[in-house]
Amino acid sequence: MTISKTGVITYAYGAPYYIEMAKSLARSLRLHSPNIPRAIVTDNQKDRELSELFDYVIPLQKQYGSNMIQKLHLYDYSPFDRTLYIDSDCLAVRDIKFIFDAFRGRNFSVPGDIYLQAGDKDTFIDVDDILNQFDLKKLPHFNGGLYYFEQSNTAKAVFETALELLRDWKKLGIAEVRGDGPNDERIVAIAMMLHSQTLFEDNGQMMRTPIGLRGSLDVDTITGKSTFQKYNKVVSPALVHFACVWAEHPIYYREVSKLKDPNKSTSNQEKSNIFSAIQYKFGYQIALLRYIAKRVPKNHKYVQARVTRFFRQLPEPIAN
Fold it and tell me: Does residue 175 share a domain with residue 64?
């Protein structure tokens, strides 16, 4: 059903919370990349605002499966010759056309520069076992908040292989994510290697999460700011991915509010500065509490593990 040459696609279905996230992503894309078509896969066909913010509103095929599994059907959903999939909890801070330019000619790719090799440890798979099973030397390690692919036999084969691997995910030892099916990133990583598709080294310019943040998160979706230290590297992504707990962070809420009404962002700047010293200093703790409140009823074991890990990371109290 290909209609346009290039475009962005995202998912949003189920709880209204996810629909609102997709709307925020669309507003940020409309602001910075107004000429790039936008598509959404959703079960909310009657939402008038979605039709205003997206050029294509595509019905969700529930028979495909749960959240993670749905992403493995992107090739069938996309109406574009060249597709950039973006997670709905991302926000654009500048024009993303350069991403399409950089990826042009690649069948399937993801930004990143990390490969897992023999002896490496990973949360979701036994690296050595996977490498041995598929006779691989390395495995790309990335965040699946952004995928690029073109309508080609190779890209189609990557998705078909991923769906084949999906059927055996338990035998392969791929762990679940938040009790909602297997980790799609590891499945896609294996499929990429089996079809000789590689990561694209973007030097932190395309998409990054604040996971591993060191210091402050300097983001302004209106003026185009996006600079922060992720672990030991300073990055300036065009797409800030507020993954997991970060979608509950005060900075995400602040930017979403500004995108809804950019004219208010200037008048509210002074008020924002007053609260920033307190609110943003404890932003991660606030985000964690919000995250727990939303997810405890759905998956208490996962949340319990997250909380335990969080408190283990706190510094030891200093004895008097």
Answer: yes
Does 319 reside within a domain?
A: no
Burial track 12-50 (b if 16+ CB lie within 10 A, e otherwise):
bbeeeebbebbbbbbbbbbbbbeebbbbbbbebeebeeb
Per-residue pLDDT tens for 133-155? 999 999 999 999 999 999 999 99
Residue type, 269: Q
Residue appearing with tokens 């499966």:
65
Q: Give the CATH number, domain containing residue 73.
A: 3.90.550.10
Residues 20 and 132 in one domain: yes
Count Cβ atoms within 10 A of the Cβ of residue 223 and give its class: 0-12 exposed, 13-18 middle, 19 or more buried: exposed
Q: Which residue's entry shows tokens 């409140």?
A: 293
Alpha carbons 41 and 60: distance in angstroms, whole number:
5
Structure tokens at 88: 């709905």
Considering the domain architecture, whether residues 73 and 144 belong to the same structural domain is answered as yes
pLDDT, tens digit, 9 for 90 and up, residues 202-259 = 999 999 999 999 998 999 999 999 999 999 999 999 999 999 889 989 999 999 999 9
Question: Among 102, 96, 85, 81, which residue's Cα sits nearest to residue 150?
Answer: 81
Q: Say whether both 14 and 158 belong to one domain.
A: yes
Q: How far apart are CA 233 and CA 205, in angstroms?
A: 12
The per-residue pLDDT for range 41-54, each reduced to its tens digit, is: 999 989 999 999 99
- Is 199 contained in some domain? no
Of 126, 160, 194, which residue sits at a domain end? 194
Q: Calculate the CA dihedral of residues 208, 90, 103, 113 and round it to 10 degrees.
A: 20
The SS3 of residue 158 is helix
Task: For residue 269, give its domain range.
Answer: 207-312
What is the rounded CA–CA span in Å between residue 71 and residue 145?
A: 10
Number of domains in the chain: 2
Q: What is the pTM of this model?
A: 0.86
Where does 89-214 have alpha helices with state H? 97-103, 127-133, 153-167, 184-194
**What CA–CA distance (Å, rounded) separates 264 from 267?**
5
